[in-house]
Amino acid sequence: MKKQTTLSLLFVFLTIGCKGLFFESEPANTPVENFVELWTTFDEKYAVFEQRNVDWEEQFTIFRPQVDENSNDEELHDILTAMMATLDDGHVSLFAPNEPFWNGHQEFREPTALGLFSGDVILNTYLNGKFTNFLNQIFYGLISNDVGYMFINHFRGDELSVIDKILEGMKDVKGIIIDVRRNSGGDFTNGQVLVSRFADQRRLAFSAIPKNGPGKNDFADPVDYFIEPGGSFKFAGPVMVLTDRYTLSAGESVVLFLRVLPNVTVIGERTSGAMGERIEKELPNGWIYSITGQLIIAADGNTYEGPGIPPDIEEINTVAEINIGVDRVIEKAIEIIIQ
User: Fold this and answer.
1) Given the DSSP bridges, would you call strands 239-243 and 264-268 parallel, antiparallel or unpaired?
2) Considering the domain boundaries, does residue 106 fall inside one?
């Protein structure tokens, strides 16, 4: 009898204690379940509703009635993207078979300013065709004996170990232009290698606050990121950082690092405003989508998620200028360096 009682108690203990070990059932692969799964994941894990000024529960009220069990893939895709479009977030995306890749930022879906930038003008007019192309990631050279220039296309791949070689060739210039217009992002830690060569001392650049629970206010403690000296070479002269509305993600992180330095001037226009970590998820039907999983606070205490990082000096090219080989953003950078 004692053994039976012991076994009974053990069963009760295991039954109670193991509740958290049971796996929740996977959502069914139906149009409604796919909608609910995506909406719920955003509701619990998306970090910047407040900064995007979006009431997500209101979006459920608007869009949920549009989905039923007879909705086909095209209809479901249109409903999901219409709902996510309210966030206007470049880190939000959806990839579905037989559909074009969809990005949540309207400027990326319907670009309005592609004609305001020309790599050919830079390489052939300002660098006179004398430049080095490093893996289609960095294009660099001298605009003059006083001005060094590097265009950074992205921060994906390995660390930018080539940066020391680039800067060695610019050691005698008066100032350097770092062009991150059209930068499509990547791994911002690669950017840390670059920015360390310009740092005079350790300075706070920004703080990242991850969303870590389903509640609206469930955030982890901030993680601080610093810019600090690194490498064998340090450039202490004027540095001009060029930005535009297509500077995205890790490109924006690099701007946050550099803008705290006293010798840096940011020129151009506001960045795209998508800085938090991009996290990919999968729906029951196999579609891949992404969310923004953290909030970024700049060293000045502001968050630029949404509106983008403002330049110190606003300069925007015109199509007419680009067509005659003039980039006024670069012109302003050169002017400041040589003045």
Assistant:
1) parallel
2) no
pLDDT single digits (tens) 121-146 = 999 999 999 999 999 999 999 999 99
* 320, part of any domain: yes
Q: Is residue 10 part of a domain?
A: no
- CATH number of the domain at 265, please: 3.90.226.10
Range of the domain at 243: 114-276+293-338
pTM: 0.90
Domain total of the chain: 1
